[in-house]
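Here we describe the complex-level prediction in full. Unlike the single-chain runs in Section 2.1, the two entities below were treated as one system.
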Amino acid sequence: MNLKVKNNKAWFLVLPVLLIVAFSAVVPLMTVVNYSVQDIFDQNSAVFVGTEWYRELLNDPRLQDSLVRQFTFSSAVLLIEIPLGILVALMMPTKGKMASLCLVVLAMPLLIPWNVVGTIWQIFGRADIGLMGAFLNGIGIDYNYAANPVDAWFTVLLMDVWHWTSLVALLCYSGLRSIPDAYYQAAKIDRASAWSVFRYIQLPKLQSVLVIAVLLRFMDSFMIYAEPFVLTGGGPGNSTTFLSQTLTKMAIGQFDLGPAAAFSLIYFLIVLLVSWLFFTTITHLDNKR
Amino acid sequence: MAEIHLEGLAHSYLEIPKNAEDYAIRQMNHVWHQGGAYALLGPSGCGKSTLLNIISGLLKPSEGKIKFDGKEVNDLEPNQRNIAQVFQFPVVYDSMTVFDNLAFPLRNLKYSKDRINKKVNEIADVLELGDLLHRRANHLTADEKQKVSMGRGLVRDDVSAILFDEPLTVIDPHLKWRLRRKLKQIHEKFNITMVYVTHDQLEASTFADKIALMYEGQIVQFGEPQELFENPLHTFVGYFIGSPGMNIIEVSVGDSKAVFDDIEVPLSDALIKEIENKNSNNIKIGIRPEFIDVLEEPTANSLTCDVLDVENLGTYKILTLQLGLQKIKVRIEEDQAAPVNKANISFPKEWLKVYVDEYLINEGAV
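The structure predicted for the assembly as a whole is:
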């Protein structure tokens, strides 16, 4: 049987999509690739430099430091928010008015714009007038996020946990609600302990939502910009300057378009690689046996 | 070993039940004997599953007592009751292998490894799961999963009763029969009390020694399948058991006879007396389609009626007859000639049942 298509005019039907994809993704990305291999002086003079920017960047302590900071931050975020989100979801009421109320309250931080979150915590944590900052100092803890890197890290992490744990909790909550009652009843009859119920019923059923939660939280935290920018401005020193802020300084502050483009690509590849790693490990766990 | 007593059991899902309709279970007294194979049969929503969940302890009854071997267990949790339950949809622990699934209840009981291995292998043999022991449970087919669910109940030595809540609903028809046989074998082998909830009379009568027929939150009859068929104690039993169900006709009672639509059916004086003692207007007669005689010639006691329809169902035929204003069904053998236009029928006395307020009345009953 000959299935070959004779009329090739059908290809025109996909043309609009091709154009949209080209102009929204391929062309901008290729522009960045183009910049990353040139040294640009002005509009008319540019020199091809090959992989020079890449080699230079990978040896640049600014990038290395902020990369380390970034991984530390993202790991901390995942280690805190995922278990905490599961815990919150497990403790939420399952029906009645309280359930709806909890959902509304949980969703609130998610509705606040990033830089507003930064501003809220900037004020909340201030040592002189902030509710938290002044309180901590009042009870004798020397706390000042603007001067002490440890305090700054603590505040940035706390802010992120406050802002995003809800997302994990809501995802897990919906996952938990989809488990039929019969599972809990069977577990009761099998004399399963509360831990076994969690380990063998709830956790396996949560796996698919947890994959989404981990990926979302990793990508978002890895690209965090507005909140620490507003809260600490990356300081004190460079202690809370994460990757995207380093990049912005380079691209806009110093107008180093070539290195900034190379930086962007490295950044993009890291996010892609780590997300892929997460995704494949978690989905492969499922098919191991 | 357990004999399960239900004493004055009633349950309502409402906090403050107002009238009888608010109850899913209404004032029930019943005994399930040790080692019996019982079916709990009834239409959807009659309270079967509620009753099962009360026995296993997943639900606490609003009123009454439930006793195991004379000991009240109302306040015991399911895990303290030595009862296993198999649900309508198979419940397996997806992340575990079949072996781990079967071993799970035993591990929770802190059995030794050797004992667990021995027990799990024994049950896997009985259920023909031996080849699958090291497969992950989420890759199994529905009937294999359901076997695993059953296995988790059977594997425990301490279980004295297994409750089945329509366990074969999701199983393919050709496998249903095999699983049902398997259950029967298991019952014979382990001498465990089994209560099997279903709405399918065939399933009930092939599995169970005795059937409890539930209707509107009550057990209206408890007996062997044949008893339920031949001597329904309640009009609902007549209607629900048998295919087609019993012919039930509302009548009034006169001298030595029941009357409907100018048609007279003779009744014994003793029976008439019983009916009159009840002092009720709700009187019905019932007769099974299988027990109506179709005569070739009219006799003194026969009734003449119009033939509306003849259905040939292969091994038997169903006649639909117009008797007065009533439509009645008659079942005759395949080789018996179906009457044309007019039929002469008679109701054999021993199979004609009389119901007052929906309950059977017997001659000389107290």
